[in-house]
Each structure stands twice: as C-alpha cells, then as structure tokens.
Write a structure and sequence with these properties.
alpha+beta; four-stranded antiparallel β-sheet; 18% helix
Length: 131
C-alpha cells in the first residue's frame, strides 16, 4: 500500500508510474546518505532477491547527488567498478553482490529506491542496459 509520504510526493509517484515495465512493486523508499561511507556489504535480507520471475530486482534513481559521490560494485570475479551515478538516471543494482558508497562531499545523497517483482520485461531492460 502507498504511505502518507506518497501523497506528499505526487511528482515521484508519477515518475515511478512512467516506467512501463515496473508492473509490481515490492518496496519503494527514499534513502539518504550524509557525509561518510556505506562500507562494502550485500543486501540479502530479501531471500527472494534476484531476477527470476517473482524475485525482487532493485533500481536506484539518484535525486540529489554530488560528482564526488561514488558507488562501487564488485562483479562475480571480484573486480570492483566504481562510478558516480548521475541524478535522474535509472540504475539497476544487484543487491546480492557486494557494493559500497563513499560520500566525501558535504551534500547528502538522496536516492529513490524501487524494488520490483521481476519478470521477462524487467530482465530484458536489465540485459539491454548493463555496461
């Protein structure tokens, strides 16, 4: 169910509903990270995380960011890739794999994080977008 915050942020709700291949939502939230870091970790609290049908895929849309803020993700070979995530772009994060964030700036990073139930359309978008 939508919370009272949804009623106060109609623009974000409209944005969420403009992604046609997001058919079923598991969780939607705003995450804020002030100066500092989020150490290397995985988000495996959702046993059903993944891209199989009905599993949970996680997407980020940075709303407020700074060029010095970096997200690092490790692939299956242990290779780290660190990059800045641009504001108002959509990013897929496999939350089962290690990742970290550093924010050396004085600006708080704010992301809209949308967890959706995976299906063929979600997998297709991920496959087309992965760099």
């Amino acid at each position: 169910d939508w919370t009272t915050l949804a009623a106060k942020t109609p623009g974000l709700c409209t944005l969420i509903h403009t992604v046609p291949w997001w058919r079923q939502f598991e969780r939607i939230r705003l995450l804020r990270l002030t100066h500092g870091q989020l150490a290397r970790h995985t988000d495996i609290t959702d046993r059903a995380a993944g891209t199989r049908n009905g599993h949970i895929s996680r997407f980020h849309i940075p709303l407020v960011t700074h060029p010095d803020i970096r997200t690092t993700a490790w692939d299956l070979t242990g290779q780290a890739q660190s990059r800045h995530w641009d504001a108002w772009h959509l990013y897929y994060l496999d939350q089962r794999k290690p990742h970290a964030v550093t924010n050396p700036s004085t600006m708080a990073r704010v992301h809209l994080v949308v967890d959706v139930l995976s299906d063929a359309a979600v997998r297709q978008q991920i496959a087309q977008s992965v760099v």
